[in-house]
Amino acid sequence: MNRRIGVVGIVIEDPKHVSDKVNAVISDHGHIVLGRMGIPKPDYQAGVVSLIIEGTTDEIGSLTGRLGNIPGVTVKSALTSKTLGKEAQND
Fold first, then answer.
1. How far, in Å, CA of 76 to CA of 37, rounded?
2. What is the pTM of this model?
């Protein structure tokens, strides 16, 4: 199956209560995560996480769907329109 590369932006309201759930979902999908950056904003009682990902649309949909089902978590993704074929995976 073809793979796509992109970014997932995650905004977490009240991270003290949901960050463990967010981290568990990201860990479950660690095989598609190429990079991660998190910025805590305690003065806003919020946090922002960005993920660079490479995976199939099913894998990416699973990640974003599970994250989006956590109360207080907002998720947006942007993916390349070009798919990476099997030959690109071996580079």
1. 15
2. 0.87
**What's the rounded Cα separation, in Å, for the pair 51 and 75?**
11
Which tokens hold the place of 64? 């974003």
Distance (Å, rounded) from C-alpha 52 to C-alpha 37?
Answer: 9
Q: What is the dihedral of CA 24, 28, 34, 40, to 10 degrees?
A: -10
Determine the topology of domain 4-80 in CATH.
Alpha-Beta Plaits (3.30.70)
Report the pLDDT value the prediction gives residue 91, as an integer from 0 to 100: 47
φ, ψ of residue 26 to 5 degrees: the values are: -65, -40
Write the CB contacts of 8 (distance below 8 Å, at least 6 apart in sequence): 50, 51, 53, 60, 63, 64, 67, 75, 76, 77
